[in-house]
Design brief:
The protein is an alpha/beta fold. Helix content is 34%, strand content 25%. The chain has an 8-stranded mixed beta sheet, with helices on both faces. Strands 2-1-4-5 form a 4-stranded antiparallel beta sheet, with helices on one face. Mean pLDDT is 87; it is low at 327-336.
Length: 336
């Protein structure tokens, strides 16, 4: 498959009162045409910042790309002007933000927010844009579209607002859709509907998707390829089958062991990776996961492992061969 997006050695910095911090450090991955790539990891691992970097929205958050490239169809987005990026955003690349209640403008109707992008990017007249907006709402499973077009965000349910966000994201038939935790705060029934909707729309318009999630169950259902991030770095990449059948990095294996099992009794505690993700102001030396890892050696504390081919996929771990051994525990059970 042909790469649609290539992120190469991307590093990002934000200015803070305590100095510059680097939430993204030397991140590389690619998205092929028609592929769904899931970026997974705990909160604070750099998933959302990666999406903002691709869209070049960091400048609005006091951040900037300091190293690397973001190639979309071979062109480097990191070097494009703001005017060029405005033409690309919403047209070629769209994003669905994590919380639709705050992403939707509360003072404009749903219809106005849909029509605005269509008029800006597609040069449609008011009537044409209105009709297209109604079609988009029907496409994402919303009924009574003429009434919905006149409503405001607070008048819709959480699931309905998320469908509107998807409609806005799909308005210009983007080549790439970035979905940042699109099912956060939705109940499981609505979550399943939203995920099924994304899968169906992907097939209809041959769209590529970057799905950002902390839920490995969602990744298993949606992904063709998985990128695992920890503390601003990519620690493992592989197909969904590789990652779930035989994880190679201890962090990946810990995430998988933390998934609830239908075979567990109701009073049994879930597995949990010991410790917490480090602060950007106090990142450990060497491998950033070493103070939570049961395989860590002196080398892990002082030398950063490169992202190299190991066990048939990319992994950043000095001791990945030990991780493959099923008899060696990776995550500890929380003691009652």
């Amino acid at each position: 498959m042909k790469p649609l997006l290539q992120v190469k050695n991307l590093s990002v910095e934000f200015k803070t009162e305590g100095g510059n911090v680097r939430p993204i450090d030397d991140v590389s991955f690619q998205v092929n045409e028609g592929e769904t790539v899931c970026i997974v990891g705990e909160s604070g691992s750099g998933k959302s910042v990666t999406s903002l970097s691709i869209m070049r929205l960091l400048e609005y958050e006091n951040g900037k790309i300091v190293e690397g490239e973001v190639l979309f169809e071979g062109e480097d987005l990191s070097s494009k002007s703001e005017e060029d990026m405005r033409k690309i955003r919403g047209n070629d690349i769209s994003i669905i933000f994590q919380e639709p209640m705050t992403a939707l403008n509360p003072v404009f109707t749903i219809g106005k927010q849909l029509i605005e992008g269509l008029q800006l990017h597609q040069n449609l007249g008011k009537r044409e844009a209105w009709n297209r907006a109604c079609e988009l709402l029907k496409l994402v499973g919303i009924n009574d579209v003429k009434d919905r077009m006149k409503q405001y965000a607070h008048e819709l349910s959480g699931g309905m607002r998320q469908r509107v966000m998807i409609a806005i994201g799909l308005a210009c038939n983007p080549r790439l859709l970035i979905a940042d935790e699109p099912t956060t705060a939705l109940d499981v029934t609505i979550e399943a509907q939203i995920l099924n909707l994304l899968s169906e729309l992907k097939k209809k318009i041959n769209m590529s998707i970057i799905l950002i999630t902390h839920d490995m169950g969602v990744a298993a259902e949606m992904a063709d390829y998985i990128v695992v991030m920890y503390a601003g770095k990519v620690v493992e990449q592989g197909t969904v089958y590789q990652i779930f059948d035989e994880p190679t990095h201890p962090y990946t294996k810990g995430l998988l062991m933390s998934i609830p099992s239908s075979e567990e009794s109701s009073d049994e505690r879930l597995y949990s990776i010991k410790g917490t993700i480090p602060s950007l102001n106090n990142l450990p030396g060497g491998c950033r996961f070493h103070n939570r890892c049961e395989f860590a050696t002196a080398k892990c504390q002082t030398e950063t492992p490169p992202l190299e081919v190991g066990n048939g996929r990319l992994v950043a771990c000095w001791n990945f061969e030990q991780v493959i051994d099923e008899n060696v525990p990776v995550a500890e059970a929380i003691e009652a």
